[in-house]
Fold this sequence. Notes:
Translation Initiation Factor IF3; BirA Bifunctional Protein, domain 2; Rossmann fold; homodimer; five-stranded mixed sheet; alpha+beta; 23 strands; 3 domains; 35% helix
Amino acid sequence: MADSKAMVTREADFSAWYNEVIQRAELADYSPVRGCMVIRPNGYAIWEQMQRALDDMFKATGHQNAYFPLFIPQSFLAREAEHVEGFAPETAVVTHGGGKELEEPLVVRPTSETIIYAMYAKWIQSYRDLPLLINQWANVVRWEMRTRLFLRTTEFLWQEGHTAHASEAEAEEETLMILGLYRKFAEEWMAMPVLTGRKTDSEKFAGALRTYAIEALMQDNRALQAGTSHNLGQNFARAFDVTYQTAEGTLDHVWNTSWGVSTRLVGALIMTHSDDSGLVCPPRLAQWQVVIVPIWKTDEDRAAVHQAGTDVMNELRHAGIRTHLDAREGLKPGAKYFEWEARGVPLRLEIGPRDVAAGSVMLARRTGGKKEPISLVGLPKRIQAEIDTMQQALLDAARERRDAATVRGISKDEFIARMAGAGGFVFGGFCGSAACEAEIKEQTKATIRVLPDPEFRSPEPPARCMWCDAPSVAEAVWAKAY
Amino acid sequence: MADSKAMVTREADFSAWYNEVIQRAELADYSPVRGCMVIRPNGYAIWEQMQRALDDMFKATGHQNAYFPLFIPQSFLAREAEHVEGFAPETAVVTHGGGKELEEPLVVRPTSETIIYAMYAKWIQSYRDLPLLINQWANVVRWEMRTRLFLRTTEFLWQEGHTAHASEAEAEEETLMILGLYRKFAEEWMAMPVLTGRKTDSEKFAGALRTYAIEALMQDNRALQAGTSHNLGQNFARAFDVTYQTAEGTLDHVWNTSWGVSTRLVGALIMTHSDDSGLVCPPRLAQWQVVIVPIWKTDEDRAAVHQAGTDVMNELRHAGIRTHLDAREGLKPGAKYFEWEARGVPLRLEIGPRDVAAGSVMLARRTGGKKEPISLVGLPKRIQAEIDTMQQALLDAARERRDAATVRGISKDEFIARMAGAGGFVFGGFCGSAACEAEIKEQTKATIRVLPDPEFRSPEPPARCMWCDAPSVAEAVWAKAY
């Protein structure tokens, strides 16, 4: 139950505000297990909507789901050198099973490349078995020191795609196709604008040839990596001996990709749209897109408004609009409004005796507009239009905020001041040196989020490195990040 | 790819046959991790269909999904005495995380009562918070010595419902409602008849007041427990101090239920329906209900039959029938038939140039009927009727097999002979003594599957215990079980 004290504001303390939005909307809770969260029904419902939308996209592009073991023999992790270096320090290790010490400890999967490619070695024989396009919805564990609900937890839920191809070009095409799909999902479903591009070598996935990412900017002007797509080259195929007979009869290693998004997206959604009254959820991902609150004083009115509310609910549901009737007794309408507002329900319909008499309902929007009466005639069409308008308005507003917090071509001193102050995205020239990149991170805490794709690059390519003034080899986007 | 050698038959070696069905249909595979399986796309697709159907049923009865941590502090498991005794010996234990030894080891959940009720203690304050109806889709781990694909694996996927209620009567009602829902799912979706009833104390869930189950009989006349629903009473509420303020202002412990079905159901489905040609899958749960195989020799024919196949696919999909067009090149129609048969696709439509000319397709059923040409006019309706007929026929056939393998009122000697031979369900009187139950198990390997619900009981209640001849307190159903 939401508590009626005023919320802390974004401006006063963004981090405390974030936690309060989650608690008031009952999206997640801390658990007694260090670093692990509980995803409560209101939060899990958003994740289910995300899963449904993404799963449809994966299947429409030829992928199938499967399930691989939670446990990975410790020796598997070690087979790919960069991979073990990246992941071994943050693993949870099972040493005992069935009351006995194990001969070889098992790692709880931090990601599943190794166990999956060990199976692919068995399944793939010939070019006819390629491409192999598999996705898995699963939990993974990475031992985190500092955790935050949804954003960084020891256990989290995600999907991980793992594909095998007959050529580097096909693997690269898959990697970029998925990146585009993630972008489409972020923009069209989450109403969250993203930059796309490639990660520098210091920021790429441990074991990948190239990592691409979608990067969003939160309301506190810190960046959030919202999804990654890796071209793994033949690194894992060599480590796990995944070979195939080519059409010409020779033997070659396959080319792999892997890609994932996680429950972190729920955190991104919260920090992109919510306000000082609580959660704001894009209607396409909301558990309930419409909540109906009947208002009555007498028993006679009660029967009439409940009947009207039920009729409206059935009509909207029939039109495919996720609608809930809040018929709870013993709770005043105002308390219900307050609760549904904190929970981010996009549209609220209030129905009192006068509305029933007038053949209308009172429409209240979570964002963008005052209350107004609307006719019951043609209601589903009107509500669908409201949903579409709100979905687009949230994307537009988020894009405007991001663009306002984006600067290009500033000097090193301006960069330092900006990272100590307003934050946001900074586009600038980059010399390509990992040492320079590390120095920037150390002095300003900013990292290169991506080397942006052409569509996001500045019209004039920067000539010099923003930091060291050496010739620029690529434009980069810096930000302080989650 | 299915291999073209003849399969081992059910009669020759049921266990080898079961494994071969799984391998040929590519449903699952052994993994390099002891006791853990890989669920391959064909098998996972069946599980996804099961999930969708069950999830809809749970939501329609007011349940919401949530997600709780994979890890459980070892001390939590110990709080409920029977529970720890039942589960501690089969747990996997994480002793190290992030490179350090943990202060308290973490158990990988074998089931989630303890961690969930620890959260409920925090969330539930008042009778207004009840009932709390939550379900979780998750992986669980139970260290198994002898494993079999789908039936008994160290890690498996399942759903676990956990509810809290204000009275024992409400908890019992929920427990039985879910039992009925499981039965409905088994019969209407899996085409698998089940007995329902209560478990004896020796067979109940560790920590439950009462356990109810659905029990099916496989083609080798061994029983399989396909789902359980537990009334937990106040046992866990006491152990985790889950209390609520009643409407009268007093404080009471809540009443809990928990219930689950797992990927074991995929094994049950296989052993209920499949034959010596491979998997037989009830159409309502099949990944593809219809596969279209175009047949051609010349390039000209090829274009025509592919067009016709695509048109048919689109028409059937539009009608909500899961349809796949197998347009693979370089594979003869016969090889495709063989493969789809092993994979259990209910209906196959063959389209050759002569079929196109005649405005018909050749329909082949996986079970129950010979090939016959059917008209393209009104095809979706005809196919839907075929699906419904096959679904019902599979249930009828399975029920007939089960009933033929069920006997009532036999003597102790007949019982011993039966359990050493044909197997099946045996209904008989039970004295209620755990010692008698244990002796039967030791001497015959048969266990009491359920004390059956009234609808399954014999018209005349048995007067004496089938084994010890003492007065019977309840009718029981015995079988050797998976």
